[in-house]
Each structure stands twice: as C-alpha cells, then as structure tokens.
Design goal:
This protein has 1 helix and 5 strands, in the order αβββββ. It has 129 residues and is an alpha+beta fold. The protein has a single domain (14-128), classed as GSPII I/J protein-like (Pantoate--beta-alanine Ligase, Chain: A,domain 2, 2-Layer Sandwich).
C-alpha cells in the first residue's frame, strides 16, 4: 500500500525547519555580537575612568609640592619621558609639562597613557599658583 498524504495533516516540512533554523542562527549571532560590543564598551569606559583618575591624582600631587621641587620646574614634555616630568605606575605612564602662566602662575598639562596606546588616554590642564 502507498501512504497518501492526508489533507490538513499537522507537522513541519523540511524546508520550514531549515528556515526556522536559519532565523534562529541569525538572531543568536546578533545577540552574541551585541554582548561582545557591550563588553568592549565597558572595558573602554573602565580604562577612561582609570586614566582620568590617574591624571587628577597627579595634578593634586603636583599642586601641593613646593615650587622649588624638581617636578614643579618649568619644562617637561607630553610626548617623551623627561627626567622629573614623568612617572610610571604599572601599565600607565603619566607625563606633565609646566609653562609660565600669567602673573607668576604656572600652566600645568598632564597626560596619562594606558599600556601601549598610541595617544594620550586622558589630558588635564590646570593653572597652578
């Protein structure tokens, strides 16, 4: 006997199953990419917060030093490590430059570079008395 398909028979065909599987794979790939992007964004935000905190801490350390200390002397570079005007703390490099400001003040610029980044991750400029 030959089995005949009955009209109105319930079930899925192979084509319907393949289409449903393809839709599921596309959706799961999108969710996985969003999770990956969110993780990277969170890591970038933590890095920015840490470098800004290092820069603020360095500004406060320099602000309380007497003007005669070597770290508060005019000079420094934001691009290279010069004696008395840079500091390494773990994977962070902090550089600062001091230039003469108006009425006996000093303009201080601090940059913090994280790891092997190409440019500064944080930059702060303040006026010191």
């Amino acid at each position: 006997m030959i089995a005949r398909a009955r009209h109105g028979e319930a079930g899925f065909s192979l084509v319907e199953l393949l289409v449903a599987t393809l839709v599921l794979v596309v959706c799961l790939t999108g969710v996985a990419l969003m999770i990956l992007y969110g993780t990277r964004l969170g890591a970038t935000a933590r890095e920015a917060t840490a470098t800004t905190a290092f820069a603020k801490a360095q500004v406060e350390r320099l602000r309380v030093l007497p003007r005669a200390s070597p770290q508060r002397q005019i000079g420094g570079s934001l691009g290279t490590n010069l004696a008395d005007h840079f500091e390494r703390q773990g994977r962070y490099t902090t550089r600062w430059q001091i230039v003469a400001g108006p009425a006996g003040t000093q303009n201080l610029t601090v940059v913090v570079i994280a790891g092997n980044a190409v440019g500064p991750s944080a930059r702060l400029r303040v006026l010191l008395r």
